[in-house]
Amino acid sequence: MAPVPLLQIDAFTAIPYGGNPAAVCLLNGPAEAAWMQRVAAEMNLSETAFIHPEGGAWALRWFTPVCEVELCGHATLAAAHALWEERLLPASAEARFSTLSGALTARRKDDGIVMDFPAEPARPVTPPDGLLDALGAAPVFVGRNRMDYLVQVATEDEVRALRPDFGRLGKLGPRGAIVTARAEAGDYDFVSRFFAPAGGVDEDPVTGSAHCCLGPFWAERLGKDELVGFQASARGGLIGVRVGHGRVLLSGQAVTVFRGELLH
User: Fold this and answer.
1) Is 47 a known active-site residue?
2) Please, are residues 55 and 40 in contact by the beta-carbon 8 Å criterion?
3) Which of 112, 222, 223, 237 has a CA positioned 20 to 30 A from the CA of residue 186?
4) pLDDT in the model for residue 235
5) Is residue 74 a part of any domain in this protein?
6) Active-site residue, from 32, 42, 47, 94
7) Is 234 inside a domain boundary?
């Protein structure tokens, strides 16, 4: 096969080696899912994005080291950044993607990128047996959307102190669990962490798709539509969130760390 350009990009950060790293493969056309899965396992990042031109947009798929996922924010941010940086799109052009979650767009604004994603609100549910024990969390609220459980706890310190049992958590499904609390500092409105061991990612550093759930949740409770979330992983990252009309605008920055080629 001809060499395939590949970039590794840190998303939701302005500083190299922060935020959430994603690999982006720039394809000429569709590729076999089995090959994409092998590449994602080789990269061993929370997600690897595969994009190719399709009509007037770009087909985009995301794979963890063990499976394909339906929605991923940080790898979409990385993919849009790659298109502009590699001059596959003019700097002023909107990046339009066709995905398993429908049409997604990204545009440059100031020194960052704004993505238009579907809102994924959580409905209240009774937690399944083992979820709270596996997280080690005392809940204020438990909900679920089509992808994840959402668990609100009382304080930011509780979010930061969590040490989940990933073996138990990975057996519960669905994709993962978001744990969140209102922020105690003034630099952001809420904090969160995201755990997805069933998808091969024990803790994701910064999760755009989780903020499609967190945005509507905290907008309702805090009474405002524009918020800033901080994901309190070891790498950490800030995500701007604007909620409205069944959509969530997610904003952040990205930095290319390296570029190379896949030879096989």
Assistant:
1) yes
2) no
3) 112
4) 94
5) yes
6) 47
7) yes
| Chain centroid, CA 173 distance in Å | 18
In the chain, pLDDT over 90 holds for what percent of residues? 93
Number of domains in the chain: 2
pLDDT of the residue at 172:
86
Token reading at 48: 């690897």
Find out whether 198 and 175 touch, Cβ atoms under 8 Å: yes
Rounded CA-CA distance 95/104 in Å is 8
Domain around 26: 4-108+252-262
Q: What is the pTM of this model?
A: 0.93
What's the CATH code of the domain at 81?
3.10.310.10
Average pLDDT, the chain: 96
Q: Which residues of 51-82 are buried (b: 16+ CB within 10 A; e: fewer)?
A: beeeeebbbbbbbbbeebbebbbbbbbbbbbb
3-state helix, strand, coil in the chain (%, to 5): 20, 40, 40
Question: What's the pLDDT band for 5 if we cut at 50, 70, 90?
Answer: very high
